[in-house]
């Protein structure tokens, strides 16, 4: 299996410094700062990138699991909300909310929910993020 790379560089002290995050494939490069991470400033942040990775992984896993169960999804769209929380021990990602809309002809709600829960549990990024609570809202849109 291939190995994937990403790069980060931070310049300066934490509150007034800035950095760049880049994917090894060259598909994305973006700036980040204290403000974009811990406030509502312009730029990206590590949690946003984790959310994108989780949403993408889950969408693919659900599509694959639906296919293995004999269904042909037309689309699976997922949004991930990553909760970064400050506590006495520092910052932690405590929860991730996956919000999914899927168009899957011929499947009933119960079967869809069962397959979606399995995808949530078994997608590689969910497995990586075992320290965070992962909440799933999956809607069948036909």
Secondary-structure blueprint of this entry?
Elements: E1 6-11, E2 18-23, E3 29-33, H1 34-38, H2 46-68, E4 75-87, E5 90-103, H3 109-122, H4 124-128, E6 133-140
Parallel strand pairs: 5-6
Antiparallel strand pairs: 1-2, 2-3, 4-5
Helix pairs in contact: 2-3
Notes on the protein architecture:
By secondary structure, the chain is α+β, with helices and mostly antiparallel strands. It has two domains: 33 residues; 95 residues, 2-Layer Sandwich (GMP Synthetase, Chain A, domain 3), CATH 3.30.300.20. The protein is 33% helix and 37% strand. It has a three-stranded antiparallel β-sheet. Helix 2 crosses helix 3. The radius of gyration is 17 Å and the shape is elongated. It starts with 5 loop residues before the first strand and ends with a strand. The mean pLDDT is 96.
Summarize, please.
It is built from four helices and six strands, in the order E-E-E-H-H-E-E-H-H-E.
- What is the first-to-last residue Cα distance? 36 Å
Task: State the secondary-structure class.
Answer: alpha+beta
Q: Within the CATH hierarchy, at the fold level, what is the topology of the largest domain? A: GMP Synthetase, Chain A, domain 3
- Annotated CATH architecture of the largest domain: 2-Layer Sandwich
